[in-house]
Design a protein that fits this description.
The complex is a heterodimer of chains A (409) and B (411). With 409 residues, chain A is α+β, with helices and mostly antiparallel strands. Chain A contains 17 helices and 12 strands. Chain A starts with 7 loop residues before the first helix and ends with a strand. Helices cover 33% and strands 18% of the residues of chain B. Classes of the chains: A alpha+beta (409), B alpha/beta (411). The complex binds protoporphyrin IX containing FE (HEM). Chain A: Belongs to the cytochrome P450 family.
Chain lengths: 409, 411
Amino acid sequence: MTAAGLSCWELFNPFDAEFANDAYGHYRRLRETAPIYFHRDMNVWLVSRYDDITSVMTGQAFGRAGQLESAKPFEVGSAPQRLTGEWLVGVDPPQHTRVRRCFAKTFSHRRVDNLRPFIEDRVGALLDQFAADNGGDFIAMVAEPLPFQVICHLLGIPAADHPALLEMTTRMLPLMEPIMTDVQRASVQDAAGRAVEYFDNLIAERRRRPGDDFVSHLIAVSDDYAGPDGGALTAAELMNNVAFLFGAGHETTTSVLGTGMYALLSAPDELTQLRADPGLLDAAVREIIRWEAPFQFIAQQAHDDTLLGTVEISAGQVVVALLGAGNHDPARFTDPDSFRVTRDEGPALSFGAGLHYCIGAGLAKLEAEVLFGELLRRFPKLLLEQQARYRPGFSFRALDELQMRVVLR
Amino acid sequence: MRRRVAVTGVGLHTPAGRRPDDLMHALDDGRTLAVASPELIQAGAPVTFAGLVPEFDMTGYVDKRRLRQLERPNMLGLAAAADALDDAGLPMEPGAFDPAAFGVAVGTGHGNHHVMERVATQADVDLHRLHPSTVTRIMYNSTAALISARFGAAAFSMTYVAACASGGMAIGEAMRRIREGQVVAALAGGVDSPVSPLTVAAFARMRVLSTSRADPATASRPFDTERDGFVLSEGASFLLLEEWEHAKARGAHVYGEVAGYHTNSDAYHAVAPRPDGSTAARCMLGALLDAGIEPGEVGHINANATSTWSGDEAEGRAIQAVFGAAGPPVTAPKGVLGHMIGGAAAAEAFASLRFGAREEVAPVANVDQVQGGLGINVVVGEPQAAVGPWAVSNSLGFGGHNVSLVLSSAG
Ligand code: HEM
């Protein structure tokens, strides 16, 4: 299939080594040429307009079964399968409803709000260090440790385990990409094995000695629901999703903090405006989240034959909703490729939409608000030192490094 | 076969807090959740205590900027509706249901009219300088409109204004639309935040508010011989109603069923209930008929009983007429919660479903001596066993609006 005489790879090639550096240019070309496009070689539909993405994410004809393609090449019973098989993001109702309800119950607003003092304390400590060095790599020094420490605190993971866990999650990142190399496969396999062991132990420990942490509460909620209606979680659901929450809770937020800092540094007028009116912080954080979506796509599968606009999608086909493309759709956001802290045009797609809408959206926004609020309060000047480096890849958008300077006065 | 309507989620922002368990504990505890209100004291209101919703963080529910455009009832209503979705295992976002098959029905007795009170009681109202959002802030339908927009409920967005019957009417009417196949799901319930000096003074002038200032925790005492009026409260509560098969297919937790609904009118007086309770009795019978069960099958009754003399007496007579002297246990949550007006019905329906599920009904708060001659089985002091899953829940409003729901906690 061709559109405008281009082959499918000419029209859209997310595996191009340069993709990450001009993702929105790639999306724009695709959206303008063929907004609902069947990519023959990838064997998926690509959807790049905001409204179509919303339809695909919320439509009754779509669901998940057969997701996490990259985990598939690992055989049943392998560690990556045992770690990811029951992830919330990969399952459909009725299982999804039951599991999500347990997580939502445990992850109440109150619990999120209770984290504020901890977040403030961590932000303070990290920025003390950042100030002492007059800046440095914002990713390594601030954007990575903050969400990591917050999620460890939430889950009650002792500090002694932090380094090993950090290494484990970094090595499992390729799981999110549609393609991985043999070296990556071996590494993922090994890291997943250790993660299974770690989280199994963590849960067993919390069963023995419950505390005031998320995992203990989750176990209690699950047990509480174990009535005749069988609302409880299975051991695999519990372990898989604690592990998922751990990963989902920090990699994504690290990405947003990093790309957000970069956006502010790259748009000095916007930064000035935000300084002048701290009331804009809330809107600025929303714009940051629109500007760069950490998860660049979500794949949905059609359960039934269905129409998307005027395009027929057949049962079984996979539709890839390009969240980053939707966030920069000019039909939805005015002048979408400019970063504006005053923008007030409704929600972006970065947290997803529909049944799988992100459970941690409130926490992620809270972390961003506390961090950027404090950065502006403390440092009269924030300066970009060199162009930031995007992490190569298609699925996950993040910066590898962001060198900057802070000036106290 | 007729479609059944499941209750798959509940959202509560009441004086008992926001967790369903908090509500049940408070009902079991049996103390009126009334507190002294600094605003009422400062204004020199004739009654200075009321049921207030504990402070909570609204920013988890709406953007800070939107928050500034919301009045108190809007906030309570939005938060309770969101919690009902959350409780049902659904995102607090649009897309939980197909918008064309998802509706919202809100009951409210007072809407946002305190906004008018605020405007009207300013020393010098400048009629040329009202805030442009004045109308949207006053509209009785503002909470329904906000919920509909926030969660993508496009099939209908309705507001019922029927004093204390408002919330029950919203639940019943939404249930009918699911039963008729118009929608698969609806958020139904209500909200009121009427605790303002003017509203309190106005109710006090009607001599319907309890004035037992000595200990507000004993102020509301439905059916008791010493009762002297109701305690005004604020609060919001919503149920997520869902077509039974749809709920089962998505693996939802089902609290129970709204199986019957009837509404009628006393056609008697602007405020006072028909003293013999005959229309309220016919209302309960209508709801039982709608559910297809006999009075003898009802395991407990959740009375509207607000602790006013004439209201409780008329309702007592109505219950007597339908169920006789050996009728099922009768409880009355307003002894604990006070009267949240439109916000009451969904919380009470939920409590009733829980009573049915645990087969035990909480006693009515603060009853030392049930008014003589009523001839009904008021639960006093200790909890009573509820036999079977069926319950009747009444909402009877000033103006003679009667609503009865029949609920079943059977899965
Ligand atoms: C800025 C940071 C974040 C972004 C951009 C983000 C993004 C997303 C997206 C796009 C989804 C939907 C995926 C899908 O449709 O399959 C999702 C789901 C989820 N997120 Fe987040 N997330 C962030 C932070 C967090 C945090 C901090 C937590 C928890 C601590 C979290 C927990 C979850 C969970 C549990 C789900 C699965 C929900 C379900 O499948 O029902 N996320 N997130």
